[in-house]
Amino acid sequence: MRIKTVLLAFIFISITSFKVMAQQPKYNFVNLTKDGRLHYLPNAKGDVIPDFSRVGYHQGDKAIQQVKVLKVLSPSGINDQQQIQDAINEMAKLPINTDGFRGAILLKKGTYEIPGSININTSGIVLRGEGTATKLIATGTGQRKLINVNGNGKPREIPHTRVQIKDAYVPVGAKSFTVSYADSFKVGDNIMIFRPGTTKWIQDLKMDQIDAREGLVQWKAEDYNLTFERKIMSISGNKITIDNPVVMAMETQYGGGEIYKYTFEGRISEVGIENMLLESAYQSDTDENHGWDAVWMNRVENAWVSNVTSKYFGYSCVNLATYSKQVTVQNCTSLAPKSKIEGGRRYSFNNDGQLNLVRDCLADEGRHDYVTGAKVAGPNVFYNCKATNAKADIGPHHRWAVGTLYDNIVTDGDINIQDRGNWGTGHGWAGVTQVLWNCQAKQITLQNPYVSGHNYALWVRAKKSNGRLKGRPDGIWEGLNEDGIPFSSLYEKQLVDRNNR
What we know:
Elements: H1 2-23, E1 30-32, E2 38-40, E3 69-73, H2 80-91, E4 103-107, E5 110-114, E6 118-120, E7 125-128, E8 134-138, E9 145-150, E10 156-157, E11 163-164, E12 169-170, E13 176-178, E14 190-195, H3 199-205, E15 226-236, E16 239-242, E17 250-251, E18 258-263, E19 268-269, E20 272-280, E21 293-298, E22 300-311, E23 316-320, E24 324-330, E25 333-335, E26 349-351, E27 357-359, E28 362-364, E29 370-372, E30 377-383, E31 386-388, E32 395-396, E33 401-407, E34 410-411, E35 414-417, E36 431-437, E37 440-446, E38 456-458, E39 461-465, E40 476-478, H4 490-499
Parallel strand pairs: 3-4, 4-7, 5-8, 6-9, 7-20, 8-20, 9-21, 19-22, 20-22, 21-23, 22-24, 22-25, 23-26, 24-27, 25-28, 26-29, 27-30, 28-31, 29-32, 30-33, 31-34, 33-36, 35-37, 36-38, 37-39, 38-40
Antiparallel strand pairs: 1-2, 10-18, 11-18, 12-17, 13-16, 14-15, 14-18, 15-16
Protein name: Pectate lyase superfamily protein domain-containing protein
Keywords: Signal
Signal peptide: 1-22
């Protein structure tokens, strides 16, 4: 009797479990396994939603440091810019400790008048305030960066290290590929993945036939060579595995791909700007002869901007330029920009670098609040950010940004991923492998380029828009204005999965 009871209980549990599994929803691109981990569903070519978790400061493997204060300053009201710059220059002469830092400069509460720019061009320096009680004002006139963090130089290819990728097709999301010869590489090498621009690719994208107008430039193959910074994690024969995924497919019909080793000797690292209010003087709401960027970063890696509020700048709160890498921008606020409301202005949080993370930020009265520019090589992430009183759209704004996740972005304006046609000097296709996850907007345009990949709007809430130019392929949508999202944040879920491996 006892055996029969146990057997009946086992059958009941099995049937119940089967029903639960049968009722569990299945999604088209990202699912959860029985143990709650992510499972990506490839398309016919093998492309999957990429892993965006290795972005930001030290790729999320290291917390932003609380660096020891070695210098304390108070506003003098006479020459605040010079005393801050002198302290930075003095700090730059100190040795770097084992964590990569020289030390922090604390700006005590008060108002610091800055008629020019504050420059940090050495590694290991943190500039810290005491919250919004520490105010730096870009006084006087002239478009400029208030805080300018910048190394020097550019990436240099190491001669005789370039080899071809042999796979006929390397899909989006892949972290490995086969090269013609791997013996000259080792684990830990920094490599550049080179994806050439080709005439056939431009023609198939129809970017050689943008509707003509004055000042327009048709796309040219030599201008679209893309380079992605990666690190080698393992080598097996001629198969190389890298730290971050491929975010644009490489295929032989468009020139395939290559890798090579590189150096970047002038790039600086371990720089932080934190806990302060940055303002610009201005003459009127449309004045443009005043502070332009509150914080600008280039030629820097493993850096951060945290708890910074900007007011009245014409362009940005934080602007990450082309050679910025693994930078985290968090808990920052852009308020009341002063400029004309038209092109090239009010890009509240602009990212032209790669492997960067902008999270938990707020922008008010901006135009392109969370935005990328031309030929931006991802992955990059905008996460848990909000835009209010938006004057234009969020998304890839220029020419062919690659591999961006917009996750939990909320705006009272639009989010657009589309063929921008002859806007600007001929922006054309704004991007590929652009992923919207759990975003809210007034309306969203999502188009797929004619070739070379897809764009995704997954579990977004918005009115679906056809975009500026009709007849373009529709993007990939799932869960539009529906309940039942499998998890709130793709970035956070990917990060949890990675950390639990």
